Amino acid sequence: VTQMAGHAFETLSSQWLSDSLQPIGPGRLPSVRSLRDGLSMRSVNLALVTPDGQARWLLMNTEPLAGGGAVACFLDVTEQRAQRTMLRVVLDANRIGTWEWRIDRGEWEWSEQACAHLGFSVDEFRPLLPEWRNRIHEDDRPRVRTLLRRHFDDPMVAFDTELRIRHREGHWIWVHVAGAVVERAPDGRAR
Q1: Which of 40, 45, 47, 74 could form a disulfide with 55 if both were Cys (CB 3.0 to 4.6 A apart)?
Q2: pLDDT tens-digit map of 52-99
Q3: Pick from 187, 188, 103: nearest CA to 153
Q4: Its pTM surpasses 0.90
Q5: Host H or E run for residue 187
Q6: Please, what sign has the CA dihedral across residues 86, 88, 90, 93?
Q7: Where are the beta strands (DSSP E) in the chain?
Q8: How many other CB atoms sit within 10 Å of the CB of residue 125?
Q9: Dihedral of the CA atoms 7, 11, 13, 14 (nearest 10)?
């Protein structure tokens, strides 16, 4: 970390920022909390400010050791964070809604823009997610099910279609829906 930061070890404690870019005091650093409080800290995002003023974003895990001390692991996620920010700018500028479906857990997440297309806020739409498929026009449901099944069974077959979905105010809107399985179980099933 001292090589990446360009700081002497003694001065590192004053160079950390939180996810909201607020300075983090030494007592709140994950490694200190593991040492002092015996806490395991997982997936903590912190910025380490280099002497030239650049922020290097680190994903940090720390674990207290039974005999005293702690171990800390850092992963530099600066590039991933920049790419995620650029993607968000592009999606927002083009008013593209996104969704994520964790098939193995039965969990859905829709972006603010995806919900807005249907006339809802995220908080208003969240309780409706388990039944969102009921909002698809009944004439489109068999085709959507078939396309999804084909994509689940064969990653080379795209899931890309247009369908009608009921807006909050009751009218039908046409939406273009595309998706891809990004994680599969060892047996090949979509997660």
Answers
A1: 47
A2: 888 889 999 999 999 889 999 999 999 999 999 999 899 989 999 999
A3: 188
A4: no
A5: none
A6: negative
A7: 16-17, 41-49, 55-64, 70-76, 99-102, 107-110, 159-166, 172-179
A8: 20
A9: -90
